[in-house]
Amino acid sequence: MTEKRDISPPHDPRIRFFDRLAADWDDSEQDPLDTVHRIGGVAELLGFRSGEAVLEVGCGTGQLTGWLAEHVTPGRVTAVDFAPGMLAKARAKGIDADFRVADACRDELGRACFDAALCFHSFPHFRDKPAATRNLAQAVKPGGRLMVVHFNSIAAINAFHDHVGGEVSGDHLPDLQGWDVLLTAAGLRRVEWIDREGLFFLKAVLARTDAT
Fold first, then answer.
1. How far is CA 40 from CA 20, 59, 71, in A?
2. What is the DSSP annotation of the chain?
3. How far apart are the two ends of the chain, measured CA to CA in Å?
4. CA–CA distance from 181 to each of 55, 119, 148 (Å)?
5. Does residue 87 belong to any structural domain of this protein?
6. Is the distance from CB of 171 to CB of 105 less than 8 angstroms?
7. Which DSSP string corresponds to 105-150?
8. Residues spanned by the domain of 183
9. Number of domains making up the chain
10. Is the four-CA dihedral 16, 85, 25, 8 of positive or negative sign?
């Protein structure tokens, strides 16, 4: 007789960390106007189009959600975050998007529902990056794209998390080889890569099936 094991993940302390910061995030941690201004500078890379269904993973207080919704209307943005406090702040802004509490590492995000999935300033905080990448790949349609964006280089992001302390200490972005391992295992193919001072951008696409 096989012993039944508890396979549920431990509570992620990062949730408490971001919930503590939620109330003051837009005022002291990250300027929403600056975020939108800077994302506009990479809009061509992101390539969002009218009518697309977009999954925003790690939406935080919704700093980008309104911008995304405007760029894909009459399409739809589904914005998820694992920190209820952050999501409450996002919902309170009255943005025309669908908000949902979800953990990218363990909760189903959808099955072939989205034209694109975006992780903005969130991927380092996924405690189980292979599981999260598989979940993201499962959520996009065949031929759909996964994009990861940071306003800094991998080296700068990882150095910051090495020294910040607390629950997010050591939360890293993979290097190029690590990314390729994650993407390939999830059925994704890397098609664009930028890693320079002030910007990290990754785009990968989900392989199409013969039936597509």
1. 29, 17, 11
2. -PPP---PPPPPHHHHHHHHHHTTIIIII--HHHHHHHHHTTHHHH---TT-EEEEES-TTTTTHHHHHHHHTTSEEEEEES-HHHHHHHHTTT-SSEEEE--TTTS---SS-EEEEEEES-GGG-SSHHHHHHHHHHHEEEEEEEEEEESS-HHHHHHHHHHS-GGGTT-----HHHHHHHHHHTTEEEEEEEEETTEEEEEEEEPPPTT-
3. 43
4. 23, 18, 16
5. yes
6. no
7. TTS---SS-EEEEEEES-GGG-SSHHHHHHHHHHHEEEEEEEEEEE
8. 13-20+35-206
9. 1
10. positive
Q: Which residues, 6+ apart, have CB-to-CB distance to 31 below 8 Å?
A: none
How far, in Å, CA of 206 to CA of 183, rounded?
A: 9
Q: Which pLDDT belongs to residue 11? A: 82
Residue 8 counted as domain residue:
no
Residue 3 lies in a domain: no
Q: What is the mean pLDDT of each run of 10 residues along the chain (212 residues)?
A: 39 94 91 94 97 98 97 98 97 97 96 98 97 98 97 97 92 98 98 98 85 42
Question: What are 179's two structure tokens?
Answer: 């990314």
CATH number of the domain bearing residue 45: 3.40.50.150
- Report if residue 42 sits inside a domain: yes
The residues with which 196 forms a beta bridge, in sequence order, are 199
